[in-house]
Amino acid sequence: MAVDSYDDRIDPVGACVGMKGSRIHGIVRELGNENIDVINWTSNPQLLVTRALSPARVSSVKLDDEKMTAQVYLKPEEVSKAIGRGGHNIRLAGQLTGYEIDVFREGVEEDVELTEFSDEIDAWIIEEFKKIGLDTARSVLDQDVDDLVKRTDLEEETIIEVVRILKEELED
Known about the structure:
- Helices cover 44% and strands 13% of the residues.
- It is of the alpha/beta class.
- The radius of gyration is 21 Å and the shape is elongated.
- The protein folds into three domains: 1-41, K homology (KH) domain (GMP Synthetase, Chain A, domain 3), CATH 3.30.300.20; 42-108, GMP Synthetase, Chain A, domain 3; 114-171.
- The chain has helices at 12-17, 22-30, 45-52, 79-83, 88-97, 123-131, 137-141, 145-151, 156-171; strands spanning 2-3, 39-40, 58-64, 69-74, 100-105.
- The chain has a three-stranded mixed beta sheet. It has a two-stranded parallel ribbon with strand order 1-2.
- The chain is built from nine helices and five strands; from the N terminus they run βααβαββααβαααα.
- α3 runs antiparallel to α5 (88-97).
């Protein structure tokens, strides 16, 4: 929820939340303990997108007003805060701001979760990689094939095929 006040003496967020959350707590209970984020409204779209993604600390925002898209850059440790559990935070931020928000990790090469390849790679193979802490395409590609054979219950041919699929996808 984004709030504003024409009176500079009034803190609109504080007025909505109340002392120790007393005002908003009743609403939260009525909504089955759903979280409610209250932010200060602004007509500056970049600042509004930044505020809507709080508590994540946004490094930079690039807006495309024609397509109504926002590219948001964050440090890797801030990404999960911006996206939220099940993608709720980023979806609600998009609805609040009117922009389709794409999140990018700052200073990290483009990477893709292994689960994104579930149509090309069997789920049990992806699980084998996850068991040893590899859950992104880059994390698998950064490993030596012989090392992966030793660390997983996968055969060398299977690993080589997975590496081929991942390389092909990331180079597009």
